[in-house]
Amino acid sequence: MSVAVGNVLPEKEKIQPIKAQRRETYYQLVWRRFRRSKPAIVGGLIVLMLGLLAIFADFFAPYPLNYTNARDAFIPPTKIHFVDSEGNFHLRPFVYAQEVTVDPRTFVPTWIENTDQIYPIQFFVEGWEYKMFGFIPMNLHLFGVEGTSIYLLGTDKLGADLWSKACEAGRISLTMSIFGTIISVIIGAAVGVVSGYYGGWFDNVVQRFVEFISAFPQLALWLALAAIVPRTWDSFRIFIIMSLIFALLSWTTLAREVRGKVLSLRETDFVLAAKEMGASDFRIMFLHVLPNTFSHVIVILTLTIPGIILAEAFLSFLGIGIQRPLISWGLLMQDAQNLRTLGETPWIMAPAAFIILAVLGFNLLGDGLRDAADPYAIT
Known about the structure:
2 domains; two-stranded antiparallel ribbon
């Protein structure tokens, strides 16, 4: 046992300073829990990928977005090769030219590859000109082929490249769903926080109105409202009206969610302290109470978007939604209404893959945010 001399402890027995533990904020806890969820990360990456394809559709499209050529109608997807017909491996992917033969009895065209010549796929090539974000002139594209055509998803009845069209369609489908969801969130959050804050007879009246709106079958009401939109209206007005239709029928769920949260918050200490300090009801509701419901708002937002995407695709598929010259994923699948065409050219259903990915991505992202929004829960 060592003895302290002159009130000085030996080197080994000196008291080490206690390191202060860094406290994580709420948002840091949410992010730490969110990134542990692999499905949520996958969903976020899917949403990010679709968003980039939509925003930079001109860059990812090898052909102009308004390009059509009736001679190239219903060409199947171009196959990407790394190994040629002689068994040689190529580091650069390549394609073969496609030639058509028509059956003299059935008149059904058959596309076959001509393996006599290889056409390498070029990346970051200069092609048709476009304006990035509407004002930056550019002519750079991700990929292209010289000497033949490349259609990753095939072509439609007009000879348009489905890959280019699907990227462009994402602009309308995603923008409409996000725009409609934002309007829905604003209405639902405002109604929910006011109803829950005041309570009493006012809350009863508001909730009965919410239940009245929720009682309508959404699909039938969407069909009815979309059908009365005049076909003579310009594309922009149709886009706005369709967004409002989706928004006005999808805010009730969030209103009830926010109302329930506000009911548990209106008697808390920070709300009572704000009242005692003379803060107005508007300030308390929208600057103190509403921010505490943002976790619910974000989750409902990510779960409402796929519902609107499906609704828009369904209405556009039936021909009472988005109209040309605007284009959406549902509008691209109108050709699939003909069973004969669908049987002979199944690749025209390729835009459905974008819808499936969008719905899957937003659902996975929403589930991850829902779990991460309560970082203190025991899992």
